[in-house]
Amino acid sequence: MIMEKIILQKWLILVLMLCISDLITTSFGANNSVTYDHRALVINGKRRVLVSGSIHYPRSTPEMWGDLIQKSKDGGLDIIETYVFWDLHEPVRGQYDFSGRKDLVKFVKLVGEAGLYVHLRIGPYVCAEWNYGGFPLWLHFIPGIKFRTDNEPFKEEMQRFTAYIVDLMKKNNLYASQGGPIILSQIENEYGNIDSAYGSAAKSYIKWAANMAVSLDTGVPWVMCRQADAPDPIINTCNGFYCDQFTPNSNQKPKLWTENWSGWFTSFGNPIPYRPVEDLAFAVARFYQRGGTMQNYYMYHGGTNFGHAAGGPFITTTYDYDAPIDEYGIVRQPKWGHLRDVHKAIKLCEAAMVATDPTYTSLGSNLEASVYKTESGLCSAFLANTGTQSDATVNFNGNSYRLPAWSVSILPDCKNVVLNTAKINSMAMLPKFTPQPLKYNLDSSGVLGSSWSWFSEPIGISKKSAFVKPGLLEQINTTSDQSDYLWYSIVMKGDEQVLQNGSQTVLHVSSLGHGLHTFINGKLADTRYSPNGNHHISVDFPVTLNSGANTIDFLSLTVGLQNYGAFFDLTGAGVTGPVSLRSSNGGLTVDLSAQPWTYQIGLKGEDSELSSGSSSLWESPVFPKNQPLTWYKISFDAPDGNDPIALDFTGMGKGEAWVNGQSIGRYWPALSSPKNGCVDYCDYRGTYRSDKCLKKCGKPPQQLYHVPRTWMKQSDNVLVVFEEIGGDPTQISFARRQIGSMCSHVSESHPPPVDTWNPEKTGKKVGPVLSLECPSPDQVISSIKFASFGTPQGSCGSYAHGRCKSIKSLPVVQKACVGSRSCSVGVSIDTFGDPCIGVTKSLAVEATCA
């Protein structure tokens, strides 16, 4: 008998291995076929319902990629989508770089090894709140070039780079037709938004781009997003907060959604946008309800704009995007978990969805049923209440269903609701940042700041590479974006009627932005920025000049280049004039605009490689605080533990920081957002827009800046800071990204967990279940901070008992959960008794892990 069991176990293991092998071969076998028809993408002859998510490889580190991909797979994704960033890979024409965070091949291979597909959006224009839309600056200087139109120099460069990427993928056998994971590619990006500005040349350009892409023979379909006239065989796709009403431009093409915006990006000077998960889940379910078969979250993990990657301009270093996986690689709950449940529910409907088109039936005002029913008897349905005010009860298929406002119920068998988008079974987590001081040793004086070295950036011209030109030069054409900074300097002797000794005159300056510091005779006279949409600066302010020679220095700066819009590449920056002086009494005006100016690209500290920490320019005596244009350096030990970490720039103004020579990006905690516009509660019901749900009004939108742990050693790390406007670096500290509490609040009216749905199951019906799970495998639930079955009130972190509560709540939950990594508790009177007969009850729990 024992021998029979052993043989049976070995047989089961063999069968399981064969099944796994078959699955891998099916997904990534040689010569896989990827086509499409009017319903879906067709992979190896089989229509598929697919869920995708955007992860941009350079916005995280290679050490993070595996974990991000696995969490995406665990969240129910089938596809990882990424742009390809031309400026990163070809910083100098003909010189390519695919190292470190730029290792596109490694990233694609990791996705494939996890059993997921890839959508490679080559562009090569990407937008993406990325500097210059992803174009390298050298492209701008090619003679006769005009971007994104029927222009031969541009088309030649675009084709050359696109072909290079396609060939690179082919050499590594990464297309599905070669057995690899890439099943889709994209050419161009949201050109339909701005193509009218390019006139008739836009139409010929789009046709050329489509033909060029197809000619590269990838063996997989190509798409164009937001391009209604995308020519066959290119699939035109939808981008937006909602795409349920989108229709492809041919009845032979499937309905695909390439960007479902999971939140929105953050700008310096603005509050932080977020998108409630109930609304996001509603949008997803509505898309599949109305015939969609592939949608992509933009972003699923947003990540970080390291270095000067952020465009915009004025886009923050964080690109968190309120995504299901946050900037630090931690799942955002309940968004990640609720969407995972939505994906599972939709996949239960896949067989019916790919077999037929949906039929639509009105169930009343703002009420709709979509049914996928086949001749063989398969039937799946979606019931939607698109109203924003009232819940509704509908009759469908002989049964009654309660539909909350702005929600979709999913019925895999056209009878039983497996999920409603407005009812969250997934737990929530309260993230926290635990402060940790910067660990460094004071010298023998014991004075705070004594361990810092510093260097004062010279005001005005200090480099041998400076040059003189008549008139005012546009900044981007002058610097080629080699630095954020450009010095303009002029030495002048004033007209006797204007510049009498000690008299005041008015200096007028006009600039294209993004920021401008004005120095008169070496002293700061004025600072201006233009972050809120209007990037022009025009200012008049009084200055006191000497009767002899006077030096006027402008330090003009950019905060990331324009990344979007028609002719965005022609958007300028810098002091373009006029620049003039006039007497305060309204007399003589002196125009300085056309006179010779001396120019210096960048800072002396940049040329001296202060960011690496190894320059000989560093000084130590008389530590300066709150001084503009100051470089700081200190050695430190890595923070304790393995949690993701950030630098807290409290006390600093604006600038850039480097850890061991790696730029963590621009910081600007001195700039707060407007005080108005945020609300304590954001109603998910109704159409979402990027300014609907905001937080951190009246505060800096970003105070914490992600530092990947892999950039640091255990000790002897070097932090370098360039402070532009003045700050106190001794206040800089670290913060560890941790989870404070995890919570769940599940009602008796919730459907049971999606995993428990089985139409063939007999016996006792499974009811709603509350589940908790510690985020780390080495943690267990250590305590239950709150538990109440009845009518609990509040939200995670602030739960309170209602009038109705079961005395069994806490002991039952403690027994089920404490000491385990995960636990599940049935939400019913069978578990807790009935503390208030006739009242719909719910269970709310807050727990901690250790």
3D architecture notes:
It contains 13 helices and 43 strands. With 850 residues, it is of the alpha+beta class. It has 6 domains: 1-25; 31-348, TIM Barrel (Alpha-Beta Barrel), CATH 3.20.20.80; 357-417; 430-457 and 607-731, Jelly Rolls; 485-595, Jelly Rolls; 740-849, Rhamnose-binding lectin domain (RBL) (Jelly Rolls). The strands form 10 sheets. An 8-stranded parallel barrel has the order 4-5-6-7-8-9-10-12, surrounded by 4 helices. Strands 20, 33, 37, 39, 41 and 43 form a 6-stranded antiparallel sheet that branches. Strands 22-31-23-28-25-26 form a 6-stranded antiparallel sheet. α2 (62-74) runs parallel beside α4 and α5 packs parallel to α6. The chain is globular, with a radius of gyration of 30 Å.
Number of domains: 6
Task: Give the distance, in angstroms, between the N- and C-terminal Cα atoms.
Answer: 44 Å
Principal-axis shape: globular
**Estimated helix fraction:** 10-25%
